[in-house]
């Protein structure tokens, strides 16, 4: 069972001011929800920048819709919520994670092998690693939290194993070195595509899936990250 924090979370990142804001994000939708949600967003003036898969062989089939909107915050937030309302996305306040629980041993194993400290929440260990170079679009700098950081997540599986998924944010000459590093560690590429339309430099988003012993999977992710220019 895939936890929401591993690969199933819709998100929206706002920047700017109350009167002049930009929102970018990614909606996680069932196949039958894609066009009803898209119609709502387009009617409100949102740009649709990508629709595609991130995973393989999941049940039910999930699609991911990337979007961007510009305007006053309220004029962006209301139609975004209305669009989500035609899907089965839960819109209530999320449950507060149990922060008193003991962190499982596999988390430290992954962090030690990966060489970085992550954030453990909702039974998922998440890493967000900013790129070293800045990314701009139409003269605006896109921050890492707006979807241009390397996103690597781990979840406990069965028999002492973990699963990993997420996406690498890559310039063109990083794409195939990262593929080779992942393949050498039996981590599979599940998608390669764009998420935006006019970003500079041109970025490619590579999604992946791997399962195995925590130290082995984390070592594979570290090897792939070493092929990327990150901070």
Describe this structure in words.
- The structure is a single chain.
- With 231 residues, the chain is of the alpha+beta class.
- It folds into two domains: 4-85, Alpha-Beta Plaits; 105-225, no CATH class.
- The chain contains six helices and 13 strands.
- The chain has helices at residues 4-7, 34-43, 73-85, 105-114, 175-184, 214-225, and strands at 11-16, 21-30, 47-52, 62-71, 119-121, 124-130, 135-137, 140-142, 149-156, 162-170, 188-193, 199-200, 204-212.
- The protein is globular and about 45 Å long.
Q: Which percent bin holds the helix content?
A: 25-40%
Class by helix and strand content? Answer: alpha+beta
What is the count of distinct domains? 2
How many helices does DSSP assign? 6
Radius of gyration: 18 Å
Q: What is the N-to-C succession of helices and strands?
A: HEEHEEHHEEEEEEHEEEH
Major β-sheet annotation: 6 strands, antiparallel
Provide the residue-averaged pLDDT: 95
Calculate the terminal CA-CA distance, rounded to whole Å. 32 Å
| Molecular shape | globular
In total, the number of strands is 13
Low-confidence stretches: none
The strand order across the widest sheet is 5-6-9-10-13-11
Question: What is the beta-strand fraction?
Answer: 35-45%
Oligomeric grouping of the chains: single chain
């Amino acid at each position: 069972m895939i936890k929401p924090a591993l690969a199933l979370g819709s998100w929206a990142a706002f920047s700017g001011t109350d009167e002049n804001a930009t929102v970018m994000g990614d909606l996680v939708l069932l196949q039958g929800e894609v066009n009803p949600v898209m119609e709502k967003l387009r009617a409100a003036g949102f740009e649709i920048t990508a629709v595609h898969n991130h995973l393989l062989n999941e049940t039910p089939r999930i699609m991911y819709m990337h979007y961007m909107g510009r305007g006053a915050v309220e004029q962006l937030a209301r139609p975004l919520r209305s669009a989500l309302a035609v899907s089965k996305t839960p819109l209530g306040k999320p449950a507060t994670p149990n922060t008193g629980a003991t962190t499982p041993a596999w988390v430290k194993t992954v962090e030690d092998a990966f060489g970085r400290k992550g954030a453990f929440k909702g039974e998922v260990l998440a890493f967000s690693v900013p790129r070293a170079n800045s990314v701009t679009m139409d003269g605006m700098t896109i921050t890492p939290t707006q979807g241009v950081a390397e996103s690597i997540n781990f979840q406990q599986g069965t028999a002492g194993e973990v699963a990993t998924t997420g996406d690498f944010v890559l310039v063109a000459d990083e794409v195939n070195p990262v593929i080779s590093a992942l393949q050498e560690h039996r981590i599979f590429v599940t998608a390669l595509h764009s998420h935006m339309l006019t970003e500079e430099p041109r970025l490619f988003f590579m999604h992946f899936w791997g399962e195995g012993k925590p130290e082995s999977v984390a070592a594979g992710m570290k090897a792939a990250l070493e092929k990327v220019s990150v901070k």
